[in-house]
Each structure stands twice: as C-alpha cells, then as structure tokens.
Amino acid sequence: MARPRCAAPPTRVYDQEHQDKTPSSRFRVALVGAGMIAEYHLTILRTLPFVELVAIVDRDLERARRLAARHGVPHAFAELVELSELRIDVAHVLVPPDQHARLVRLLFDLSIGAYIEKPAALSSSEALELDRQARERELPLGAHHNNVFHPAFARLRARVEAGEIGRVEHVQSTWNLPLAQLDAGNFSHWMFRSPRNIVFEQAVHPLSQVHALLGRVKSSQAHALSTRELETGQLFVDRWSLSAVAERGTAQLFLGFGQGVPRSTIQVIGSDGSLEADLIHDTLSGEQKSSWLEFWNSYRASQGRADALRSDARRVLSSYLKFTLGIGPRRDAFWVGMHNAIHAFYNALRAGLPVPCDGERAAQVLEWCEAAAAPAPPQALREPPLPEPGPVRAGEVVLIGATGFIGKRTVEKLLEAGRAVTIVARRVSGLPPRIGEIVREGRARLFQAALDDAQGLARAFEGAEVVIQLATGGGDTWAEVESAMVKGSVRTAELALAARVKRFVYVSSIAALDTSASGGKALDDSLATDAQPEQRPLYSRGKIATEQALLELHKTRGLPLTIVRPGIVIGAGTPMQHSGYGMWARDNHCIGWGEGAHALPLVWVDDVADALAKLATHPGYSLDGKALNLCAQPSLCARDIVAELAKATGRPIAFHPRSLLLSWWMEIGKWLVKKAGRRAGVEFPSLHDLRCRALDVSFGCTLAREELGWKPVEGTQELLEKAIRIYKR
Asked: What CA–CA distance (Å, rounded) separates 112 from 89?
C-alpha cells in the first residue's frame, strides 16, 4: 500500500467521534519498547480494524515476548533491524526520550514511519530534522501528544474555536502533580539524569495544550522556583514558572512535580468570556459577558459554573459506573486522551489528511519546552568511570541488590566489619553517590548483572564465600512474579552452589508468614510459611514460593541457606506512607488494618543491615537451613506512628481505624461490581489476607539475638528519632 505523505499541520480540530470504516488494506504496525505505556498502545491499536499488530521490539527480549504473548502479536525481537523483512508501515517509539531521534532515524532507514511518544526529540532542531527526513522519504511521522486530546481540553478548545469567549488573550496553566518515580526513589529514570529532563518528560503535556491554543512562543521568561537534591547527588527542580508571549496571546504556567495536592487546570481568558478546564476531574466551566445588572450577572455566572460542574461530575460518575458494571466503554480522561490521539493519527493517515501532530508541530511544542527549561541548573559533572572489578579477595561477600533501601546500608556494615564486598547491580549508571564512591575507592568490586544474567552472576560469584540475595523482582501477574522473584532466586542459588559458596542468605519478609492470628500470639523463627498462599497478594505469594523452592535446594543439593525475614522496615529512604501502618487512601489519610492499637513489628533499616553483616561473618553452620525473624519490640502502634508523623511534618495526617470485617465487606462489594461488569481475573476478597496485614502478632527473634548478638533499636523515643521524625520539614 502507498505510504501517505505527512502534510502541514491542520487548521481544524479532528473529529474524534467519526466512525471508522473497514478498509481494503491494513496498516502493519510494530512497537519499539515493551514498557508500561506499551500496554495502552497495544490495547488501543487493537480497537482499530485497519491496523495489524505485527511485532514488538525490546532489548529485553523476554519482556518483549511476554507482552507479545499477552496481546497475540506474532513476532518479538531484541533488535530493530529484524523488522526489515516484515513490511512495517508504522512503528510506535515507546522508549526513553534520549533514544527517540536515533531510533526514528533507524526506522526511516528501514523505510518505516514513526509514531513517537512525547517528546518527539530533545530539541526543536532535532524534531525539525526528523520532519524533513520524513517528508523527503514520504514516511508517516507523528508525535503522541495525548493531552491535546484530553476530553476536558478538547471541549474547551472546541468552544474557544467556536468563538464563544471571543478572541483569546491569555492562557493560565497549572500542573501540580505527584510523581510516582520520585516517591519510590526510582532515580535511575531518565527524567532525573539532568535538571532539565523533567520538563521534556512531563511538562510537554501542558505545554502542548498551550501551544494548541496560542501557537508558537515568541518571547519568554522562566524561573526555577525550588530544588531538592536526590540520593544520586543530582539536583531536581520541582517547581518552575514560565511567562510568555506567543503568536496569539500571552501565557503563564506553573509546573510542580512531586507535589502533594494534585491540581491540573487550564484557564483561557478571552475578550468576551473565560473558560477553565479541570484536567484531573474532567470538568469544564466558564462565563460570558451578559446584559444583566452586575448583581444578577454575578449570580448567573456562579450558578452557571455550578451547573456545568454538577453536570460534568454526574457524567464522569455515570461513565465510571457503566464501565465498572460492564455496560459501557472505558471513558476516564487518561484513557480517552490516549485513545483519541492514536485514533486521530491513523484516521488521518487512512484519509490522506495531515496528522494531528507532525514533526513541525512537535518542534514548536519543543520550543515551549526549551523556553521553560532555560533556567535549569547545570547538569552534575559526570563521575569518573567505574573501575574494573579486579581479582577476588579472601572472604568475599557478594551482595545482590546493594543499591536498594536495605542494600546500601548493608554494604557499609560489611565494610565496617572488615569484609571484602562485591556489589551486583542491574544498572551501573545512576548509582547512589556513596556506593559509587566506595567502588571508585576500590573498597568494593562492582559487577553489572540481573537475576536472569547467569553469565554475569557466575563471574561475580567466582571465589565468593557468602552471597546475600536482596533483589526482589516482581510483576503484575503471578507468571511474572514467579519468573522474576522465584525462578530468578533459584537460578541465583544454583549459581552460588556451582561457585561453592559457604553461605547463601535469602532476604525474605514476614509477609511470607501466617500473621492472621490476633491477641499477641508469638511467631518463632520456624521455617513454616503461610499455608494459604493463594489467599495472599502476589508479593507475599512470591516470597512464600521462593522460600520453599530454596529450602528444597537446601534439602536435595545442600544449599547452605539461611532465610532472613525483616519486619516493617523503616528509616530514611522509605516513603513516609508505609503500607505496614494501613492503606493510604491519600498521602495524609491512613485507613487502618483494624483498630491500629496494637504494637507493630517495626525495625530500623540500619539494624536489618547490621544483622545481615553479622550473618555474613558468623562462623560455623549452626544457621544453615534456618529462618531468622528480624523485628524489634517497640511499643508503637499504627495510631502512634501516624500521630507522630502529623506532629513532625505539621500536616493534617489522620489515622482512620476500620474493622477488618467492614473492610472485607467493602472489598466484597467492589468484587460484586467487578463480577457484574464481567472483569477478567477478579478474585474473591481474602479475609485471611486482611487479618495478615493487621500484624496483630509478636515475633520471636531468638536466633538473631542469641546466635548473632543482634541488638536492634527498641526504645520508643530513639526509634522515633531515627525512623519517623526524619520526615520533619
């Protein structure tokens, strides 16, 4: 089929509601990148009858294969060049932004068009060059600016273009939202590698909307309002402002990343009225000039806004209930924006019309990004290259997961104990500064390897005495958890056996235990795990299965195994909203797993690291085939902790006790609604799991205390100072 040429940007708004017709030919489509966003693209592409999903490409071939299997895509590859024989028309580029331009050029060399997740590139000049190449080769090129298709913004834009508020004079945009990666401490993400990256990763959403209303930026003044230092040592700008003069009016933007109160709005002030869209709640309201007296005009304007908001609120609620009950399509704002953006691109190609956002228009949005990012502080200086690991040393302890919350402390404790340390990390870029410093000083060796990298792990294990497995692994399905957590740990243990290590330490969790009893029943250091794993969430189920699989290796092949089960690990580096205290409905509202009045099995992260270091140096074989609980015994309950957090932060943080039976009945209600909506994979709520989450038990830690001489922090005030009051601002 002839490849449509990308024309100039359209002057009209695309009609997202027109009906697709069954075509005589289909677009053959591939995805490059198998991350989280790929699920959305695949699901939406399957709703287009004239699109054929052909292949998924990802450097992690197993991830590409799993995604392809879930969506019935026939091919999965690790290299882009393998698409060359498949006659692909368009590839969706869903990789980190710093790879966009390079991969799009490679696709062009294969005569494949591109649909690029935002941002199209990292500079306006680069996007223009991609646009030039696409036009010369007559290949499709589009940028995925899904927020231009956000339903509330689409309604606002249509009313503006209909002339309802007259000539547009000014646009005010606020983007003040949480940032999951920031909260989780996932600082390896591309957006944290340079202070300006966050603008190109996140601010492109509101800036694409401002561009759609006002056109190109002509002059601007931007400010970096506040910064914070990340654990990597990099500066992160979390608040920005931009004032600008554009082709068709002026604009002001406030950008806040990692903020506690979600607020995303865009207000348009015209010569004869105003409109404001709330992008979180999918509402739109406004007012126009009228002939009424001022007092009555004021009443009518307020009443009109109230009516519009009420109507939109009912529509959003109705759409949610219909979808949940299975009697209506999915209509939440994020989904609709994604859906309509992808549909608009392919409908335009099919009709021979200009695509909604070609390279030229993407370049103009990037001009806005460049204006907003202008005051970004300089990128941190690159650290010197990391040294080669060097030869194995006597008494080598290999730590897998050393860059994590517990792992970083364990490295320090091992070095304090005089042990030779080998660090195994999945990524060596963006190491925590202290870990990088230790490696560069030659105090620890560093190997790059993941749990599925047998060759890399074998090199790291060669000559080692002890292996500590701290890496978790996870997934959204049992198949993924079993592959990453269970099989990954078993593979690691088998490699440790082959290397003849003297001790293999698996760091599990008290989540593997049956903690459903109440009334203070004590759980000792036994090997018994929860006998009802099918009633537990994936994480707990994975820990249970991993412990059992490793114990089988201990029994049948002599794996020198010791299992360690920390309690609720607290301290600097873990989110304030710990799930051990309850279910956080919001970041300042904790709903208890019960009444929240019993003491919790807390443990300071440094004490967990201390126990692991002591275990690595423990002589003899008395702990082989044993499981050690690591829980302190402070008299702190969930209510106490949440109250202390409120006091330390000065925020209205509240604990809401709720009986487990009430929570269970509420979960059953949700289950009934989902079953009525014929949702796949919905399991009946587990009262057993809720009782386990309450942790209304005490834990015997005899082995750690007697065999290792472990003495955790247990004084209430001392533990509060070290692990709770650290959140004070």
From this structure: 5
> What distance in Å separates the CA atoms of residue 436 and residue 427, rounded to the nearest whole number?
12
Give the homologous superfamily in CATH for domain 149-296+369-373.
Answer: Dihydrodipicolinate Reductase; domain 2 (3.30.360.10)
- CA distances to 26, 188, 227, 609, 706 from 182, rounded to whole Å, are 41, 10, 13, 24, 39
| Residue 25 exposed, middle or buried by CB count within 10 Å (0-12, 13-18, 19+) | exposed
* Token reading at 484: 């990453």
**Residues 682-698: b if buried by 16+ CB within 10 A, e if exposed:** eeebbbbbbbbbbbbbb
Residue ranges of domains in the chain: 149-296+369-373
- Paired residues of 590 in beta bridges: 584, 655
Give the Cα separation of 590 and 584 in Å (integer): 4
Separation CA 409–CA 23 (nearest Å) = 60
Which of helix, strand or coil describes residue 162? coil
What is the pTM assigned to this prediction? Answer: 0.83
Reported residue count of the chain is 729
Q: Is the pLDDT of residue 10 over 70?
A: no
Q: How many CB atoms lie within 10 A of CB 504?
A: 27
* Tokens 């080692």 sit on residue: 464
> Are residues 563 and 543 in contact, defined by beta-carbon separation less than 8 angstroms?
no
**Closest listed residue to residue 346, CA positions, set 119, 110, 71, 46:** 46
Average pLDDT over the chain, rounded to an integer: 91
Helix (H) or strand (E) holding 340, with range, is helix 333-351
Q: Which stretch of DSSP H or E encloses residue 30?
A: strand 27-32
Contact predicate 94/117, CB 8 Å: yes
Instruction: Decide if 73 contacts 56 (C-beta within 8 A).
Output: yes
**Sheet order of strands, 263-270 included:** 217-229, 235-246, 249-257, 168-177, 263-270, 273-278, 283-288
DSSP letter string, 189-218: SGGGSSTTHHIIIIIHHHHHHHHHHH-SEE
Q: Check residue 575 and give its pLDDT.
A: 85
Tokens of 15: 């009609």
Confidence of residue 695 (pLDDT cuts 50, 70, 90): very high
Among 152, 250, 263, which Cα is nearest to 210's? 250
**Largest CA-CA distance found in the chain, in angstroms, rounded:** 92
